[in-house]
Write a structure and sequence with these properties.
It comes from Luteibacter yeojuensis. InterPro entries: Isochorismatase-like_dom, Isochorismatase-like_hydrls, Isochorismatase-like_sf. One of its GO terms (molecular function) is hydrolase activity. Keywords: Hydrolase. Helix content is about 40%, strand content about 20%. It has a single domain (about 10-55, about 75-180), classed as Isochorismatase-like (Rossmann fold). A 6-stranded parallel sheet has the order 3-2-1-4-5-6, with helices on both faces. The longest helix has 17 residues, at about 30-45. It is an alpha/beta fold. It is built from 7 helices and 6 strands.
Length: about 180
């Protein structure tokens, strides 16, 4: 379903657009994803809406014999893409799971701001973005997914999330259509 409205109090959640993730070999170039995310973040800030920047600095505890790579523990890996123009008003969430809600205070933070709608974008579509969107939907947020501001490690995983999962979790849109709603 296409974006019907953008709430005045919506929050943008930018998933894992950090140096270590955007440098991974994704199926489509990360540069355009970062550019679109940066434009949307600027527009959200200028309109007085909330921006949440999410990065990852560890993997979930438990078995790792399934081929789950370990996350490097250096500051350069975790640093946000400079194009995002991190602002003092941005809320930063450092996660240790795929999604941004589990084991973080993101839900409490958004509820404290009376946010009911979240706009989600980032890398990787089928991992961090989808996990965050699923949890947001289960928590009762109105979810909007900016499908051309996402990339994945695998093209088929990206397409599956966009075509089969996201329409069940919320509304989908493009960066251009979203920016037009912000005005």
């Amino acid at each position: 379903m296409a974006l019907t409205q953008l709430d005045a109090n919506a929050a943008l959640i930018v998933i894992d657009l950090q140096q270590g993730i955007i440098s991974l070999p994704v199926a489509s170039p990360a540069g355009p994803v970062v550019e679109k995310a940066a434009a949307i973040a600027r527009a959200f800030r200028q309109s007085g809406r909330h921006v949440v920047l999410v990065n990852v600095d560890a993997g979930a505890p438990g078995r790792t014999d399934g081929g789950v790579p370990q996350v490097p523990q250096d500051a350069a890996f975790k640093a946000f893409a400079p194009e995002l123009g991190q602002a003092p008003t941005d809320y930063v969430v450092t996660k240790k799971r795929w999604g941004a809600f589990q084991t973080t205070d993101l839900d409490a933070h958004l509820r404290g701001l009376n946010v009911e709608q979240v706009v989600i974008l980032g890398i990787a579509t089928s991992i961090g973005v989808e996990s965050t969107a699923r949890y947001a939907s289960e928590l009762g947020y109105n979810v909007v997914l900016v499908t051309d501001a996402m990339a994945d490690l695998k093209a088929d995983a990206h397409e599956n999330s966009i075509k089969n999962i996201f329409p069940r979790l919320g509304e989908t849109t493009t960066a251009e259509a979203l920016l037009a709603k912000i005005g």
